[in-house]
Design a protein that fits this description.
single chain; 0% strand; 269 residues; globular; mainly alpha
Length: 269
């Protein structure tokens, strides 16, 4: 499934085709494994904001939350790895993969543990800087996109692989901006869903929702953090598929695979 030159539009179009093939059940896998981490992440941030300057006095509370979040983070990486493999297999075959999508190579997953953690650390270290967050998003995307290209355990080789595909900076930056806009739209949709649910409950059930309106408002920090987590969970399958297709198309252009596919399509037409 390499139908056009490497552009932002072609990557998005072909990732949409892949998503349509692997949505059931593989999108459910990545979403189910992401939910614990994203909401524990939101919980940790909420507690950190709540204790503020007194954080040093709440080491056990914050430490326990962080430990659970780390365990959930590893689970989420595994879910992403399975989904990325399903996307790659679907792109190569033109059909939905079977149980082989579960068999993520150990070396590939180990490499992704390192690169995925590196991207997360960059994000936390630069969360208040626009450029740093963009770099974290690009590294994280390339980490999942190049995961199965890691055939041996080597930190330097893994980083070189990311740097190699990082040369497509124009397309990578454009993809990141597109998903940043999509994140904003997803955020509005998730918040609107809660509002619609309350409106339906008020109209059809006549329930007293005065307390719920306070909880599900922009003034409630926990609701805002949970909404951000939910918005990203909804986008994650599309983000992974886009990066898998970007790496696949970039690699095809380097090796000439795109020309082989083109000639094969001409021969069959």
């Amino acid at each position: 499934m390499i139908h056009a030159p490497l552009t932002t539009t072609s990557v998005l179009d072909e990732s949409t085709d892949v998503i349509s093939m692997v949505a059931a059940p593989w999108a459910a896998v990545v979403i189910a494994t992401s939910i614990p981490y994203r909401f524990l992440q939101a919980l940790f941030v909420d507690r950190l904001i709540e204790v503020g300057g007194e954080a040093s006095h709440y080491g056990r509370l914050l430490g326990t939350t962080a430990n659970f979040a780390i365990a959930a983070f590893v689970l989420s990486l595994w879910g992403r790895a399975v989904f990325a493999r399903a996307c790659r297999l679907a792109a190569a075959r033109g059909s939905a993969p079977g149980r082989e999508a579960w068999r993520v190579p150990a070396v590939a997953f180990t490499s992704y543990l390192f690169t995925g953690t590196l991207a997360e650390l960059i994000f936390y270290a630069t969360i208040f800087t626009g450029v740093g967050t963009l770099v974290a998003a690009i590294v994280g995307g390339l980490a999942i996109g190049t995961m199965e290209l890691n055939e041996r355990a080597s930190i330097s080789a893994t980083i070189r692989l990311i740097a190699r595909y990082g040369r497509e900076l124009r397309v990578l930056s454009a993809l990141t901006i597109v998903f940043a806009c999509a994140m904003f739209i997803s955020l509005i949709n998730v918040a609107a869903t809660f509002g619609l649910g309350m409106w339906l409950s008020d109209v059809f059930l006549g329930a007293d929702l005065s307390r719920w309106k306070i909880l599900f408002s922009g003034n409630n920090r926990r609701f805002v953090l949970a909404t951000i987590a939910g918005a990203w969970i909804a986008l994650e399958p599309f983000w992974i598929a886009a990066n898998v297709m970007l790496v696949r198309k970039a690699g095809a252009a380097e090796t000439g695979e795109d020309l082989k596919v083109w000639f094969e399509e001409l021969r069959q037409s």
